[in-house]
Amino acid sequence: MNASITLDRAPLGTPLVIWSTHPDAVVARRLSRFGVRRGARLTVVQKLVAGGRVVSVGGGRLALDAGVLAGVAVAPEASAA
Amino acid sequence: MTATGTRRLKVAPALPTIQAACHGPAGRGAGEGAPVVALAGAPNVGKSTLFNALTGLRATTGNWPGTTVDVGRGVWRFRAGDRVCACAHCEGTCAAHQPSEFTLVDLPGAYSLDPISPDEELTRALLVDAPAAERPDAVVVVVDAAHLARSLHLVCQLRESTHRVVVALTMTDVARQAGVEVDSHALAEAVGCPVVVVDPRRRTGLDNLTRFVRESLARPRPTARVVALASDDLAREDERFGWIEAAVDAGTTTSGAQRMSFSDRVDRVALHPVAGPLLFLAVMWLVFQITTTVAAPLQDALDGLFTGPVSDAVRAGLGLVGLGGTWVEGLLVDGLVAGVGMLLTFVPLMALMFVLLALLEDSGYLARAAVVSNKLMRSIGLPGKAFLPLIVGFGCNVPAISATRILGDARQRILTALLVPFTSCTARLTVYVMVGTIFFGRAAGTVVFVMYLLSILFVVGVGLALRATLWRTMGAEPLVLDLPPYQAPTLRLTASVTWTRLQGFLRTASGIIVVTVCAVWLLQSIPTQQGESFGSVPVEDSVYAAGARAVAPVFAPAGFDAWQTTSALVVGFVAKEAVISSWAQIYAVTEPAEGEDPGDLGAAIMGAFEESSGGHPLPAVWAFLIFLMAYTPCVATVAAQHREIGLRWTLFGIAVQLAVAWTAAVAVFQIGRLFW
């Protein structure tokens, strides 16, 4: 069953797995450099102004705006497994 | 290791090579035949800090991405006595045994060899696109242990060629705090090249790094990593990430569950949607308040030194050699000593500002400031990271223009380069402090803070105007910004960055300012009327005053059309530091008006504003400060713009700056005089 949601709607602090990355190839390439790619694990750790979020991925912290978050589909780690 | 001075080389976009970068006319590396070692790595992994530690030079460093936008080079010296090669019959003649120095080339930060910005293109050009014979002899890839996977991408791509690669592993302490332990031997086994743990900030592990690089050079070039045939770019990337994942698994052990780090806890406040912007404003206000209040007594002491003992000593010396009361005394005492001396009184102020900015950079806070200001930046069509060159502009506009190269899109770079001059640099700060102290006394710190807020408003306002007109078709770039962990600033790094910037200021003082002061003195010494002689003409009868009077009516609607004020602004086009020296020169040689304290520069300036504004000095002063903030910063910035965005856009920028500055100044005075 596809239980994915977009990253902007993901709850804080829940381990997530990336279901599909951003549809824009250029954005997807930039994200992949920081480890945000299909199959990677991440956690949303903080809300930012204007719908942005800080995500924890690969041991680092990445600030993403609402537009980027809306293009990335994730699923809770438990359901993805 | 030997300090030889900082050398940064801008490499032309056409066919750049390591050889061109190392042996071009603009600088030099190690001696002829010395191996060339390139320093590569993702942004913000400590690459420039390592470069400085190995060469003793002072490349610009900071705890935020994009610090290196040029190619830097220096000499990496070491003891050559130890035999490191394994050649059977070597008698000290092989490449690894012979040299006692390398040429070290500091490449711009790059996550990958598939570039998405000009600085990444440069790194690729030097490592991949250059002919094989012109590539570096070895590449040291700086890898952040706390973000191992993303740092290894470059190692992975370099291992697909025959580069000799040595990994310099940094930030192991940060990784340990996050519960990640890196086994450098296991990692070396997995990536197929030596891995050396270094701490460039504390300068540990450097001897080991030297040894590994020499050993690497003693061996033949390695064979390229075998890569399975990939059907497309996506499949190739999947293969790379698989390789990276395997290397990370082999080289690291993670203990315990992920817990909230110190940086996470600080970011709860620093990035909070409401508290974050307020904290940002508070930090900026504190910086300017500390700068102005702490520096004030030091400035007074220096001022006393130059107007008193130094001037007296020069006069006495000239008197002894029979030049007392001549034009030579005028040039030296009223020109050079008064002008340069006044400028040097601002050294403590600028040093404090540079220290505080260096602390903010090194701590990692500036990356948070970029996130907090992202929404503001997007409103003018720029990505959050465009904030970084703009914040650098508050220190000095010239490096800020160079820093626009971290932006991938050419139109964003031009727009940012056009906005940088509206960021109020420290040279303008000196004038704010002086004028603020004269007219507003103890509220000078608040005046300075308001000027910086206005500067931000001008950046946004001009940005919105350009966005709505020439840049209306440009889309907004999404925010994808790495947040480095907070770290305690080190004394050595802070002192080094501060000294580098202060040196830049002092070079300006001893170069442009001295020339300007002499030119102003010369123009003030040439009479416009017959009967006056060279060097003894009252300044109001000089060619200088005549020129200023011709321009002055332009500023009548803004309330500051005194020729003395106008001439200071004209000189300020060369450098803003010269505004103060120009005033000091003019008022030092002008006959004092009746009842005026001849030694009081403040009273003279106040009198000029009182008169030119028709009894509304405060609106006129605000108009003057706003004009000063918004018009062309200095010739060095113009030159930097010319280099980065071309002549046409540079001239366009100057026209925009003058139009905006004049319009805003007139509006402020005309509205202000209704109330004050």
From TrEMBL, chain A:
Keywords: Iron
Gene3D superfamilies, alphabetized: 2.30.30.90
Superkingdom of this protein's organism: Bacteria
SMART domains: FeoA
Pfam family, one: FeoA
Domain Ferrous iron transporter FeoA-like per the UniProt entry, residue ranges: 5-76
Name used for this protein in its record: FeoA domain-containing protein
Taxonomic lineage from the root: Bacteria, Bacillati, Actinomycetota, Actinomycetes, Propionibacteriales
